[in-house]
Structure formats: structure tokens, C-alpha cells
Specification:
Blueprint (H helix, E strand, L loop, with lengths): L10 H14 L17 E5 L6 E2 L14 E7 L6 H11 L5 E4 L1 H6 L1 H9 L3 E4 L13 H19 L10 E2 L8 H9 L3 E3 L3 E2 L8 H15 L2 E6 L3 H16 L3 E7 L11 H4 L3 H10 L5 H5 L24 H7 L3 H15 L8 H11 L4 H4 L5 H4 L4
Parallel strand pairs: 1-10, 2-7, 3-4, 3-9, 3-10, 4-5, 6-7, 8-9
Helix pairs in contact: 2-8, 4-5, 7-8
This protein binds zinc ion.
């Protein structure tokens, strides 16, 4: 089938993957910096054209996972400092994930897109602007959103052939419609829905994100877990969530796109099939017509507030949550803090949502060019 990226990954990437399997074997976590790490138990390569729609929530197929296997997915980023911290935590646990990138965010933070790629995670597309209207959008603007999203990720990577970007796509808000799905499958894209939700786009605390993710994974036994790397609660929840997954015997599976250098993982059709009973249960709970209003109500989260971006509380020690979120970089923290103090007085600025957003990005990580980028409008609206 036609591939927008030529269907060829770089020989270097293929060599690295081959070396990984030869050196470590697919079933053993290799994490020299953390012998007790959760690790990535295996990598599976999938052919999008053979399985164009994934996720028990909306489709008849999902990934061919064994019992107690989990695939981590992060949507809506990248956004500093959240995505940076998510990547730090994943690196500490030697866990690989799939990042569904928003094109506008890739344009604003290309260095973070590069980091996701260089650290071996899978890059996927979550549309250019994350419109919450995919279920009722005419096909032409939908096509534009999809293709612009891929183009923005490729541009952020400086990767004209797109060999670093998979053909994986997740519809914003999971707001599917037949015409869009037909377009996606005709283009050879793999549309990802989800198996397990952690509700981390809602106004819930980090411990509740952990609780819901674990309870639902225990209940289903395996699956694609949806998280958001732009959410404070998600970042705070992630270390505990990964530790608990390890304690409970869950394994992390990394998903990549098959290519001529990396043949697809051999599977049987029944491994992809979602049980009829599960589909019936989901249909009762979430009638497809109601997904927009029940599954992902809008707006469900506020824009990040000023504390999300603070490296240090002015005039005091950081709270534990802030240390977890921002890490122990004291020198960097003091620099950021003093910058704000000199600009806004001893006690910091009087924060409004609009004035905050430009300040927040000025004090967050990233290159000078990235810091000058505006906050995407859709993020300001607090949509998932
Ligand atoms: Zn999203």
C-alpha cells in the first residue's frame, strides 16, 4: 500500500533496533542506570494497512497484547515542562511509549519532538490543531488537519522523508466519523482509539489518576492506556503509576511501525480481536453517539495555572509535588525564580490566565526560538 513516507525507515534506526534485540533480547528490560526499573518487556512492529483501527473503546480490534501487557500513550503535547518530566520519568524506568503529537505543539517545541524521537519513543500524529469537531467536520478540513499534523512533526524533526514518524493517528477527543475513518484507512494510516482511560483530562488529583488507571487495567487485564503529557496531575502520577505497574506484574510493550527493515511481529487474527462481550459492555456504557458528551466533555480542564511552571516557590522551599514535577535542579530553579522576582517584584506577579501564559512559556524549558512561540489557542481553551 502507498506510504506517505516511502515506507522506509533509516538504516541506522533499523540497525539500532536489531542491535537492541541481539544485545538484550526482546523479553528482558535493559536498564543499567536502574536495575529495579519497570523496563520495556518487548517491542511489537505493526502494519497499519492490515489493522487500520485499534482500541476496544470504539473498534473491533486492538493491539495483540498478552495478559498484563500495557502500551502507554501520551496525547496533546509536547509542552514543557510537563513533557520534559514525563520523558525523565520514562527514562528512569527505561520505558518506551507512543506520543500522539499535536502539530501546532510540534511547531512551537521542535526540540521536544526531537527528544521524544531520540529517546526511542514512537512518534504519532494527533492532528494539527486538535479541533473538537472531527465528528462533524467536512472531509476537506479534516484531511488538512491530518496531513498538516504529519507535516509539522516531520518539520520539527527536520526529517523530510518522515522516517521518524509513524503512520499512527489518534482523532482528537476520539470524535470519530465514517468519512474521516475512510480517509485515514485509504491513506494507510492506523487510527488508534483506546482500551483503558485514566481520566487525566478531568479535574482530578494525581493519586486519583493512578487509582483509576490501575483499577481499570486490573479489570481489563491489559491494554492501550491513554494519558496526557500536558497535564500536571499526569506528570505527578506517572512515577507512582509505573512503580505500581511493576509491583503488580504488568509489563510495558513498545509499539513501532513495521517496515522493510523491521518486519511485522507475527500474530494471529484472534490476538487482535476485541471480545464481543467487552464491546457490548462498552456500547452500553458509552453509546457511540454520546462519546462527545459523556466520554470527553468539554471543557474539562482549565489551562495550566502559574504554579504548573514554577521551579521554586518564591521565598520558600518547594513543595514535594513541585520537586516531583520539576526535578531537583536547584541552580536552574533559582535562576528562573530570580528572573521572575526581578521582573515582577519580590512576591511575584499577579497572575491572570492570559498574562500567565506568556510568562509561563518564557520561564519554561526550550530554545530561545521555542520560548518566543505563543501558547496554542486550543490549549488555552482547556480541551483534552
Ligand atoms: Zn487530545
Amino acid at each position: 500500500m502507498w506510504s506517505p513516507f516511502g515506507g522506509v525507515r533509516s538504516p541506522f534506526a533499523a540497525y539500532c533496533l536489531l542491535a537492541f534485540f541481539i544485545v538484550t533480547g526482546p523479553a528482558r528490560a535493559d536498564c543499567p542506570s536502574n536495575p529495579d526499573a519497570l523496563g520495556t518487556s518487548r517491542t511489537i512492529a505493526v502494519d497499519p494497512s492490515e489493522h487500520p483501527f485499534l482500541g476496544a473503546f470504539q473498534y473491533r480490534e486492538s493491539l495483540p497484547l498478552n495478559d498484563r501487557e500495557v502500551v502507554l500513550t501520551f496525547d496533546d503535547g509536547p509542552l514543557p515542562p510537563y513533557t520534559n518530566r514525563v520523558l525523565d520519568v520514562l527514562a528512569a524506568e527505561c520505558v518506551k511509549a507512543t506520543f500522539f503529537i499535536v502539530g501546532r505543539m510540534a511547531h512551537a517545541y521542535p526540540q521536544l519532538v526531537k527528544r521524544v524521537h531520540h529517546e526511542g519513543h514512537t512518534l504519532a500524529n494527533h492532528s494539527q490543531n486538535h479541533p473538537f469537531t472531527f465528528h462533524k467536520m467536512p472531509i476537506e478540513p479534516a484531511r488538512q488537519e491530518i496531513e498538516d499534523g504529519f507535516a509539522s512533526i516531520r518539520a520539527a524533526l527536520g526529517d523530510a522523508e518522515g522516517s521518524g514518524v509513524t503512520r499512527f493517528f489518534r482523532i482528537p477527543g476520539l470524535l470519530r466519523q465514517d468519512a474521516v475513518e475512510e480517509y485515514l484507512s485509504a491513506r494507510g494510516y492506523m487510527t488508534w482509539s483506546v482500551d483503558v482511560l485514566a481520566d487525566d483530562w478531568r479535574r482530578i488529583r494525581a493519586d486519583e489518576v493512578v487509582h483509576r488507571a490501575l483499577n481499570r487495567l486490573e479489570s481489563r487485564g491489559k491494554g492501550i492506556l491513554l494519558l496526557h503529557d500536558i497535564r500536571r496531575a499526569t506528570v505527578l502520577a506517572l512515577p507512582t503509576l509505573l512503580r505500581e505497574l511493576k509491583e503488580r506484574g504488568f509489563k510495558i510493550v513498545h509499539v513501532v511501525e513495521a517496515s522493510s527493515e523491521l518486519p511485522k511481529t507475527q500474530t494471529q487474527p484472534e490476538q487482535w480481536a476485541v471480545r464481543r462481550s467487552e464491546r457490548a459492555a462498552i456500547a452500553r456504557l458509552w453509546p457511540s453517539a454520546d462519546i462527545a458528551t459523556h466520554l470527553l466533555p468539554e471543557p474539562v480542564l482549565p489551562a495550566p495555572d502559574a504554579s504548573n511552571f514554577r521551579y521554586w516557590r518564591l521565598g520558600g522551599k518547594p513543595r514535594r509535588a513541585e520537586r516531583v514535577l520539576h526535578g531537583p535542579g536547584r541552580k536552574e530553579a533559582r535562576t528562573a525564580s530570580s528572573r521572575r522576582s526581578s521582573a515582577h517584584g519580590r512576591h511575584g506577579p499577579s497572575v491572570t490566565s492570559s498574562s500567565f501564559r506568556s510568562k509561563a512559556h518564557a520561564s519554561s524549558t526550550g530554545t530561545r526560538a521555542e520560548r518566543s512561540q505563543p501558547t496554542p489557542i486550543w490549549l488555552g481553551a482547556g480541551r483534552p
